[in-house]
Amino acid sequence: MYQVHCLNNIAKVGTDELGEGFAITDCFKDADAIMVRSASLHEADLPRQLLAIARAGAGVNNIPIERCADYGIVVFNTPGANANAVKEMVISGMLLAARDIIGGVEWVDENSDDPNVGKQAEKVKKDFAGTELAGKNLGVIGLGAIGAMVANAGRSLGMHVYGYDPYLSIKYAWSLDRHVRHVSNLSELWEKCDYITIHVPATDKTKGMIGRSEIAAMKDGVVVLNYARDVLVDERAMAEALQEGHVRRYMTDFANSVTTQMKHAVVTPHLGASTKEAEDNCAIMAARQLRSYLLEGNIENSVNFEPVDFGPLVDDLRLCIFHKNIPTMIGQITGIISASGVNIENMSDKSRGSVAYSLIDINGDFDDDAVARLAAIDGVIRVRALRR
Predict the structure, then answer these.
(1) Helix/strand number for the chain, H first, E second
(2) How many Cα atoms occupy the beta-carbon half-sphere of 147 within 13 Å?
(3) Which of 372, 305, 226, 250 is nearest to 384 (CA)?
(4) CATH of segment(s) 83-267
């Protein structure tokens, strides 16, 4: 029975998906697997027996990924499960920026006691006039699950869409509207776009990628939308650009001491993926990935190990071996298996950086002593033996 600990409130529809062979535990130290949303694990003393962490969402900056890899702990995320929710949030951000809807609502609230509010509204509505999205240029930075959906939505709204993604996958390339114009240089996007939205993960390379010089290169009156990660934008440079009027609006989902003081910024409290549907989708996807890995050794959507899928366990034994990515390792592993007189039916070994994962299906009598010999190889991090 695998013990699963939920660090945040994980939708029941997801935990129910774990099914037979799994139990939810309130004790962190007893966990074989962890399901998490936003809680930070960087300072946590991870249980020795912990096998996997599933993040019910896309971002994993709350998880010590490299430390987990060194311990043979697989970290999963759920890319695309909340994409529609974030896409709709971006669309709402563009509409709020284009039309002064918030200002209009506030005026009505302030004048709600006036018996002539209807007549007064006709006089002041020009103060809240805006522009339409149709015909405007939309720049989308990052064309993954969310960015591709935003780009297509922009096209549906009649916008001219420019997309930038040097790592565009075939999967998302096929999903893009054929009229989305792919640019190879961000400077083209800065120069042309009336609206710019960013959809990339927070990494050492992307932090601050919209900085002072990038903002200066944008069109006057540009609207910048950030529903991805706060660290992607130099917020102090953005505050200055808003104050000067160079940037018309900054739409962001990250409230902090800087953004909440920005002139002409519309700040929401991290609502991008906060829909019932998104939370359910993320929880279900996370649970299914955990179940497949823990019961069958298959890895999908891991951020620290490469994907591998052998399907259901049909042979006598499936070995899941985490090891350092060093020479002679595979020879030592297969040597022990061969010496036991069993047959390898299927094998995969994939590395990511300094670590690797071997999945091996074998038929024959491979006892616990043989498994222990594999675990004793210098450089082997963890061995799991799954028997049919």
Answers:
(1) 13, 16
(2) 27
(3) 372
(4) 3.40.50.720
Residues 4-58 pLDDT 10s: 999 999 999 999 999 999 999 999 999 999 999 989 999 999 999 999 999 998 8
Beta pairing, strands 222-226 & 195-198: parallel
Q: Write out the DSSP string of 241-271.
A: HHHHTSEEEEEES---TTGGG-TTEEE-SS-
Place of tokens 């049909």: 314
Query: Tokens 């491979």 — which residue?
Result: 366
Q: Which CATH superfamily includes the segment(s) 1-82+276-305?
A: NAD(P)-binding Rossmann-like Domain (3.40.50.720)
Q: What's residue 158's pLDDT?
A: 98
Q: In sequence order, which residues have a C-beta less than 8 Å from that of residue 363 and are 6 or more positions away?
A: 315, 316, 317, 342, 343, 345
- DSSP letter string over 35-94? EESS---TT----TT--EEEESSS--TTS-HHHHHHHT-EEE--TTTTHHHHHHHHHHHH
Q: Could you tell me the pTM of the whole model?
A: 0.84
Spell out the domain ranges in the chain. 1-82+276-305, 83-267, 310-388
Q: What is the CATH number of domain 310-388?
A: 3.30.70.260
Distance CA 296, CA 75 (A): 16
